[in-house]
């Protein structure tokens, strides 16, 4: 999953909408431009994705439901980390991207303390840059987590992130480069748990580099996502998070408000109400394990769910 650089100029002009619970339990925002039809998708949308499998799949899922609703789309996959795709959205290079609630909130506000999905959705609306909106979040969720091998867990008695403190300076941590400066990363692990590592290796998050390094023993702790099928297959231990460093990570569309008309909102809401964490895990498996193309995987799933 990734998935927090503070943008100190983002607070001006933001409005704080109220929360209303949908019958499905998915939160909807009501506020300026949210839930209305102030935008227009008549010129089409460009969807960007981050540089990992799941986000690419989500980008093609977005494209599929929007195309089915009569909205022309272009997908620009694998653009890079949040530090690249969010500025691309702000500049107008892209119009829509799949995001993750907790990671996005902490990217925009390093001091945010909300961890529950509804509270985070409301908090997001108060810190978003002018011109951007978060639409209702999906049932599907994919959290960051920190994994060790069973052998490492047994050797050091590791069950929680707090346990890492007793082996300070002994273990090597592997993740995407940006995790070195993120709250859900080295910063938060040190501030909340007092954990320090012998070395940080810049690899990827829940990707082939970090998982390969964990298998080989080149790193001891890896950042992986909860929808990653390799965790169960390899018997890795996901360290528990008693202090709730890692917030809820429901999938949420982040969109340029000028494009968010009712056609777009309804299409993405249908997808969000249908897509579950189990679905997302299986879609990841088809791409990562079966080596299927993410656009084909997305297309087949949408057809099966009658969303095409």
UniProtKB/TrEMBL annotation:
<feature type="domain" description="ABC-type glycine betaine transport system substrate-binding">
    <location>
        <begin position="45"/>
        <end position="304"/>
    </location>
</feature>
<dbReference type="GO" id="GO:0022857">
    <property type="term" value="F:transmembrane transporter activity"/>
</dbReference>
<dbReference type="GO" id="GO:0043190">
    <property type="term" value="C:ATP-binding cassette (ABC) transporter complex"/>
</dbReference>
<protein>
    <submittedName>
        <fullName>ABC transporter substrate-binding protein</fullName>
    </submittedName>
</protein>
<dbReference type="Pfam" id="PF04069">
    <property type="entry name" value="OpuAC"/>
</dbReference>
<keyword id="KW-0732">Signal</keyword>
<dbReference type="InterPro" id="IPR007210">
    <property type="entry name" value="ABC_Gly_betaine_transp_sub-bd"/>
</dbReference>
<feature type="signal peptide">
    <location>
        <begin position="1"/>
        <end position="20"/>
    </location>
</feature>
């Amino acid at each position: 999953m990734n998935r927090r650089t503070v943008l100190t100029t983002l607070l001006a002009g933001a409005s704080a909408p109220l929360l209303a619970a949908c019958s499905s339990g998915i939160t909807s925002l009501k506020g300026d431009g949210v839930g209305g039809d102030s935008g227009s998708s008549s010129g089409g949308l460009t969807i960007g994705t981050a540089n990992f499998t799941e986000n690419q799949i989500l980008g093609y899922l977005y494209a599929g439901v929007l195309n089915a609703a009569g909205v022309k789309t272009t997908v620009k996959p694998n653009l890079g980390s949040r530090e690249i795709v969010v500025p691309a959205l702000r500049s107008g290079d892209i119009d829509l991207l799949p995001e993750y609630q907790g990671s996005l909130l902490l990217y925009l506000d390093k001091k945010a303390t909300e961890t529950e999905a509804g509270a985070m959705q409301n908090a997001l609306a108060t810190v978003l840059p002018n011109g951007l909106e978060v639409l209702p979040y999906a049932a599907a969720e994919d959290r960051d987590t920190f994994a060790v091998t069973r052998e490492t867990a047994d050797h050091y008695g590791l069950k929680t992130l707090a346990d890492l403190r007793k082996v300070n300076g002994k273990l090597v941590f592997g993740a995407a480069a940006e995790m070195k400066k993120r709250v859900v990363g080295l910063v938060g692990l040190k501030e909340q748990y007092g954990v320090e590592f012998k070395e940080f290796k810049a690899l990827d998050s829940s990707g082939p580099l970090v998982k390969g390094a964990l298998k080989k023993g080149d790193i001891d702790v890896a950042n992986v996502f909860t929808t990653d099928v390799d965790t169960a297959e390899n018997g890795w231990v996901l360290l528990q998070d008693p202090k709730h460093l890692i917030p809820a990570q429901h999938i949420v569309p982040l969109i340029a408000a000028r494009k968010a008309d009712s056609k777009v909102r309804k299409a993405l809401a249908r997808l969000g109400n249908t897509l579950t964490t189990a679905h997302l895990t299986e879609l990841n498996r088809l791409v990562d394990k079966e080596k299927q193309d993410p656009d084909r995987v997305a297309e087949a799933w949408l057809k099966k769910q009658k969303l095409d």
